[in-house]
Amino acid sequence: MLIANEHPDHGKPLDAADAATLGVAAASEVERFLAYREGHKPTPLVTLPGLARALGVAAISIKDEGHRLGLGSFKALGGSYAVIRLVVEEASRRHGRTIDISEFRSPEVRAVAAGLTVACATDGNHGRSVAQGAELVGANCVIFVHAGVSAERVEAIARYGAKMVRVAGNYDDSVAEAARVANENGWIIVSDTSWPGYERIPGLVMQGYTALLREALRELPEPPTHVFVQAGVGGIAAAVAGHFSVVFGTQRPFFVVVDPSRAACLFESARAGQPVKIAHGEPTIMAMLECYQPSLIAWRVLSRTADAFMTVEEEDAVAAMIQLARPSDGDQPIVAGESGGVGLAGLVRARADETSREIIRLGSDARVLLINTEGATDPDRYHELTGLDPATVGQAT
User: Fold this and answer.
1) Which residue is catalytic, options 64, 75, 259, 331?
2) Given Cys at both, which of 28, 40, 286, 315 links 260, Cβ 3.0 to 4.6 Å?
3) Is 0.85 surpassed by the pTM of this model?
């Protein structure tokens, strides 16, 4: 299902604060910080000419975040960046001088970090990033996970030294519990979703994501005409749409937000014309997108910069995973986790439906940008859904 954005704010410029958070200068600062991260390198931008021919569009490019900083997800850019920024700012305050983010490994910063605790709720990937950032800077870390987070994902977070806390219920329940406990203990909550009175830190998380867009734009031979990005609470979708609205202005690409039909909080917010919390029903296999209430800062950005909202089904996500792993017509294989290929799933559904094609003007001249937001961060689940071993994808091609 696809609907056009009919919000009264659609097409209006971003708020000044959001434009600053997601703009070019901020993205350049994130990239400067990444230059000090050991092992950092830009992730691949993969062109898929065979798939483009099959779908009847001019070009498809996919930014493959399955290779990001050893975490296998775009979230590696957000949580760790926010943690280190916050610790460096606190060290600057205590030492009475501006400490540059390039000094995050210095004894001065680590001494301050040792007395701080950061916390968050997670479906898996954001928590790994926060825990990694805490380990890098020497801070304490507590991560809250809900009942649906797999043991493998919990173990992957704990490897970075985080204390793990299980919470009954779903993702939104874990967000509430993390905020409650952090407030009681004086911890710093580093969430990728925002609520009234809590926006700056989620804004820093989103700011971290903009680095992948700078990388992509440097490699694309022409700007995209269409962008399909999957959404949970909306952070990555808002980062992409917001940054592109700053860079391209009125010439920005047509932007489509893609939700799982079982957790379509942004789609339903678009229908309602305001952010809404939806009922928790049957879980979705798109585990990283299983969110039932949008981030307020993300909604504020997307209400202005998203052009359409759509949903995809469980089988669409699995089909996209398989399509990327076993491409036809000579395309490069890509390992995409359950949530990683959802943007492609949205493109396939939109291209197959005449009404959707007309709404988003998806013609044969379309140049589409997608983001593989995660690799096989749970290899067992990947094999269960696709029948493929992620370690061997592409070896036979």
Assistant:
1) 75
2) 286
3) yes
